Amino acid sequence: MEQTRALAGPELTPRTAVVWTVLRAELDRHGGRPLTVLDIGGGTGGFAVPLAAAGHRVTVVDASPDALAALTRRAAEAAVGDRIRAVQGDGDALAGLVEPGSVDLVLCHAVLEVVDDPATVLAAIATALRPGGAASVLVAGRAAAVLTRAMNGHLSTAASLAAAPEGSTGARDTLRRRYDADTAATLLTAAGLTVEEIHGVRVLADLVPAVVADGDPGALLELELALASRIPYRDLAAQLHLFARRPA
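^ thats the sequence. predicted structure below, dont judge the formating
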């Protein structure tokens, strides 16, 4: 059986370490078997290229032709162009872009906040996964958005975010919705996925002054990892990372 190489990935930072730690555990679970990976909204390949470099085959679906062009160049520079496929499309059209039951691992990062119908996207993800396959879902956290706006003096906007059913302030908001752990987990469960882990991402990374973060990045990284799964810190993170599985 062909074996993958160890996943080096980019250098772990306080903004990415939690997600990479979960993904590496999932890859290790497969004992070095090359996986078929689907990266929805994967853009220029921040996750796709390291995964391909470790021997996995990755299909990146993204609506931006410019992002996909940058992905193709980046993949060529990393000598992994033969293991990355770029497909123009968006999450709402996913069902028509991927063969059912063909994927071991799906990445859906910063997508459910902007699509027309998150439930439809998650149903398509569940269909694309093989039985036992896993999904890495990263969404914007509502609580962090409320606190950030309040701390910056935008109290009326913070109040609107806190009260809005979907955690958006309307047409001028860059995101159509934000989540808390329960609402996100409920969506995944409704799609037939079993949520195994929930972590906070960027619990402190966006709050700590740059001089502090730059002065001791190792300590900040360790603290991010330590707080990622601990309530209430988890639920105050800028993003929530849910790791779920299609039942075998």
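Strands lie at 36-40, 57-62, 84-88, 103-109, 129-140, 194-201, 239-245.
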